[in-house]
Design goal:
heterodimer; A: alpha/beta; six-stranded mixed sheet; 8 helices; 12 strands; about 30% helix; B: mainly alpha; ABC transporter involved in vitamin B12 uptake, BtuC; about 0% strand
Chain lengths: ~280, ~270
Amino acid sequence: MNSPVVELTHATIAVGKRAVLRDVSFSIQAGDFVGVLGPNGAGKTTVMRAILGLLPPTSGTIRVFGEAPKFGASTIGYLPQLRTVLPDLRVRGLDYIAISLHGERWGLPSLAAADRHAIEETLDAVGASDLARRPLSDMSGGERQRLLLAQALIGKPKLLLLDEPLISLDARHQEVVIDVVRRIARERGITVLFSAHELNQLLGAIDKVLYLGNGHAALGTVDEVVTAPVLSRLYGTEIEVLRAGGHIFVMSRGRDVERDAHQHDHDHGHDHHGHGH
Amino acid sequence: MFQYEFITNAFIASGIVAVVSGVTGYFLVMRGQTFAGHALSHIGFAGATGAGLIGLSPLWGLVGFTLMAGIGMGLMSERISNRDVAIGVVLALSLGFGLLFLHYYTSFASQATALLFGNVLAVDRGMIAALGVLGAVVVVGLGVIMRPLIFATLQPELAEAKGVPMRFISTAFLAIVALAVAACAQIVGVLMVFTLMVGPGATAQRLTGGLWSGLAAAALLALAEAWLGIAIAFETDWPVSFCIAVLSAIGYFAAMMVPATARHAH
């Protein structure tokens, strides 16, 4: 078997003083499309930030492409969860992406012809060429998400970290995003970590699921991981898994925990709007 | 009117300040930190009156205080420096101290109006040189941090992941803003820094989605408002800062009226 793309070995990852993941081990193989699931605060974003090298493990090791995570590695494409509520900015899509290329360099921004070409190429790949000239403030949530997805694909990364790319999208746009990611990942042999609130929308696309909860993590196929014993351990409460009509429902005391989590996050999102900066 | 040296001086000084303020203000608006810029100018009032009290030049008292406050706001986490209530409390406190300093140095009181509302017609050669130095530092500083600054503004999560030093960038930016505010306050006064610093930047944001065209528009708008303001003041004998404030407001609200379809042409 090839060496894994991402490998955590007895890793403990803390945010501030709180250990979000405790003594976690798993390894993700090249080309896998992994759905990252779990209740709020279980560490979906934390795992991605650790892989990016932003959160070094307090104990244990993390290996990405066989090495310790490197800051700003070009082999990783990252789509952060949209926490920043942008003001009414008329920045064009092209400029928005352009600044992320070598944005860490000092001096005045500039766009080389090769970079412009790379941007247009990835916009085309996600079917969003028209967004290059449109201002950000005129884009819908789905269009912004596609713009960010195009941005994450620039530089031909071998690993894509997509943090809640479906948030605030309607069902139709969610499917479009999943399909685009699935297609490009297959074509280019990219390994994908795709975090989401709901398992069902990802069922047709993912090879594996990484379920997080209660400081633990479980990686495997849906049939291996989404079971009553595994999820009960992750949620720290008794969980029932019901399958009906090609859907899977994760229930706790008769309530759908994923749906509850989703509702909760919507409230949370509004809260961010209120105090947005 | 250019036969008068004080008018020529006023045009030169306000020209330097307008370009510097317009460009700085464009980034302030983009970052959503206009209130921080407003607060810095009020903190500068305490610095200027305090400097007068101990016999120093009000300009350098203003520069010193705004610079310290800008760096302090930047070093505190973004979350704190963007919190309107905290900034508002510090702002009011600074004005209070400014009042206290004035209270103990009564001969300075005649200058208080100039500090609060500006006095561009009293600018001399020495002040022009000082404004030129401040302006050059601001423009060069912005030029150096511009790329990571915009990246950190538009995509903070990704910028952090790419290794942009976020704390340093936001601190350096607010330090630069502090210098621009100190320069701007010489022309329109600490209470009216918004007119030259935020008005043109916000108007430019509404007019164009391009970065360079936006910066150019902000600088040109500020310049036009400052010079036209002085000219109107010369003809009417109204206060200069009033004229500039009116032009700034007209520019902003006119840009808001521009129909969305016309703006899409870009």
